[in-house]
Design brief:
CATH superfamily: 2,3-Dihydroxybiphenyl 1,2-Dioxygenase, domain 1
GO molecular function: lyase activity
Organism: Kribbella sandramycini
Protein name: Putative enzyme related to lactoylglutathione lyase
Strand content: 35-45%
CATH class: Alpha Beta
CATH topology: 2,3-Dihydroxybiphenyl 1,2-Dioxygenase, domain 1
Structural class: alpha/beta
Largest sheet: 4 strands, mixed
Number of helices: 3
Order of helices and strands: EHEEEHEHEEE
Helix content: 10-25%
Radius of gyration: 15 Å
Strand order of the largest sheet: 1-4-3-2
Number of domains: 1
Shape: globular
Number of strands: 8
InterPro entries: Glyas_Bleomycin-R_OHBP_Dase, Glyas_Fos-R_dOase_dom, VOC_core
Domain VOC: 5-136
Length: 137
């Protein structure tokens, strides 16, 4: 058996300050690293108490190999919320949902008992990323 853990996942951002406010202020994540500037700013965030698991909010066009057509497609997919997804979990889904709504989070789905056995809700972050939150047992 291989001992593998998730260290970093990546989500694109349009505005790092808006993304920081969403994850820090609405979901209680901590900012762990903030490097670069302008269009090339990278921010590492993560849930408090879980220092080994992070999300890197990155400029979506940082790769110099991305063509203008690909950039256009990425922008369109981000605007529709179909480019990137992260699934999180909370011990108190309803309280997490209410805090995110009170802070102006863009609701995709209110807390719902899914037919496949999960209770969850969903938001879009400021960049359009799909953020789904599951209820922990």
């Amino acid at each position: 058996m291989t001992d593998i853990t998730i260290v970093h996942s990546f989500l694109p951002h349009n505005d790092p300050d808006e993304s920081i406010a969403f994850y820090r202020d609405l979901l209680d994540f901590e900012v762990r690293n903030d490097v670069g500037g302008g269009a090339m700013r990278w921010v590492t965030i993560g849930p408090a108490g879980q220092p080994d698991t992070s999300i890197v909010l990155h400029p979506p066009f940082a790769d110099p190999g991305i063509t203008e057509d690909e950039q256009k497609m990425i922008r369109e997919m981000m605007a529709k919320g179909t480019f990137a997804t992260v699934v999180l979990a909370s011990k108190d889904l309803d309280a997490t949902f209410e805090k995110a709504v009170a802070g102006g989070g863009e609701v995709i789905q209110e807390p719902t008992d899914q037919p496949y056995g999960v209770r969850d809700c969903a938001f879009r972050d400021p960049a359009g990323n799909h953020v789904r939150i599951n209820q922990l047992p």
